[in-house]
Amino acid sequence: MTGRPATTTLWRPTGPEELALVRALDWRAWPPRLPEQPIFYPVLNEDYAIRIAREWNVPHSGVGFVTRFEVRSGFLSRYPVRRAGGRTILELWVPAEELPEFNAHIVGTVQVVHTFR
Description:
The protein is of the alpha+beta class and 117 residues long. It is built from 4 helices and 7 strands.
């Protein structure tokens, strides 16, 4: 009997444009990065995602969302955890060209867990 693969919970603060693209992908993938976005940055804790959604997405577009999703842990081991500030400000840096493979390792769907206006 095989069980569910070991997963890691990730969060992503996002604005309405990116969220609409995720919705169009049936909540199962992140859209390709724009040319000026060479890295996809999921974060490792909810509080950090909330802070970005409130402090960046809301002023930028009037609304900020925090999403949560699961990715196979074994796959994520290729990406070192990056500290983007304090000890709890942790991210993964996924090169844009690796995003399709990253998406293939999402287990389940992307869920909106917070909305800020």
